[in-house]
Design a protein that fits this description.
Layout: H1 3-17, E1 22-26, E2 37-41, E3 49-51, H2 61-73, H3 76-91, E4 96-100, E5 112-114, E6 121-130, E7 135-139, H4 145-148, H5 152-166, E8 170-173, H6 185-196, E9 200-204, H7 218-228, E10 232-238, E11 241-246, H8 247-250, H9 256-270, E12 282-284, E13 289-291
Antiparallel strand pairs: 1-2, 2-3, 4-6, 5-6, 6-7, 8-9, 9-11, 10-11, 10-12, 12-13
Helix pairs in contact: 1-2
């Protein structure tokens, strides 16, 4: 049985068992795990349950019926989570956070802020709790604005204010661990040389998680300009960090087209799809951020 057939049958079984819920299919790009899923929810509930058919590859028709029955028994948790989410959102805007959308993410129905001079957007979420290895949060969408008693623009403004205040953005020389990402020997050698001269820098936050949001904050970009000492390129290596290099340190060894090709190559070969930020290269001159046109 193909995953498509399994998904269709599971959808049918769940629809029969949960007539009060809407069951929709979401693509891999729309889900936290980066896998296609069936989303079980309702318009009046801000939380939903996600079921990933690929987790049940090889299931028989009898297995599908048992899976659907088990999911139906857990549907009450959707109501419980909704109460938590609604309470958090209504009572405490400090729980809002801003983070970068991944490359190619469909932002229809999602409040977002596109950083001027880039093709990178920030979106908002409500963080319910986190630890060193995990975080429980949910994405803010247009459908929830009534719950927030606010506009999407204002929710994003609050999220960005909170993120800037507590993210702890840092600008530091590139560490040795990033050499491990360089599969090509000539690229690794270039990074070793640049590292010895402190010409490559890492911009992220203290958690190294969603740290590429730094590109939305001029204060962080100006701090990098002060440390680098000149106009610099920004290479969006993932949603979690940015690489920066002074223009005088790259002109002889790589052209702007080479830099853009490098970002695209690393995205395709080294970065998980849901962590890809952009295939573009940007430049900051101390005041203005713009996209490099190879």
């Amino acid at each position: 049985m193909t995953i498509e057939t399994l998904t269709r049958k599971l959808h049918h079984e769940l629809s029969a068992l949960l007539p009060d819920f809407e069951i929709t299919e979401k693509s891999a790009a729309e889900t936290p795990k980066g896998k296609a899923c069936l989303c079980i929810g309702r318009a009046d509930l801000p939380a939903a349950m996600m079921i990933y058919p690929s987790d049940y590859a090889g299931a028989s028709d009898a297995d599908i019926r048992r899976i659907a029955a088990s999911v139906a028994e857990q549907s009450g948790s959707v109501y419980e989570m909704s109460e938590i989410v609604a309470g958090s959102a209504l009572s405490d805007s400090e729980k809002l956070d801003a983070f970068p959308a991944w490359k190619g993410m469909d932002l229809t129905g999602i409040p977002h802020y596109t950083v001027p001079g880039t093709d990178i957007s920030l979106i908002a979420r409500v963080v319910l709790g986190n630890s060193k290895t995990a975080e429980m949060s949910y994405l803010v969408t247009d459908a929830q604005m009534e719950m927030f008693h606010d506009t999407g623009e204002e929710v994003l403004r609050k999220a960005m204010k909170n993120t800037f205040a507590r993210a702890g953005f840092t600008v530091t020389p590139l560490s040795e661990k990033f050499m491990e990402l360089c599969a090509e020997e000539d690229l690794a050698e270039m990074i070793r040389e640049a590292e010895s001269q402190q010409t490559l820098w890492l911009i992220t936050n203290r958690r190294s998680y969603n740290g590429a949001a730094a590109i939305a904050f001029p204060e962080v970009l100006r701090e990098a300009y002060r440390k680098i000492g000149e106009r610099y390129y920004i290479l969006p290596s993932s949603r979690h960090e940015l690489l920066a290099a002074g223009v005088s340190c790259t002109a002889d060894s790589m052209t702007e087209k080479d830099l853009t090709d490098l970002v695209r190559h690393v995205n395709e070969t080294q970065v998980e799809e849901r962590d890809r930020l952009s295939d573009s290269v940007f430049c900051f001159d101390g005041e203005k951020l713009c996209m490099v046109t190879p």
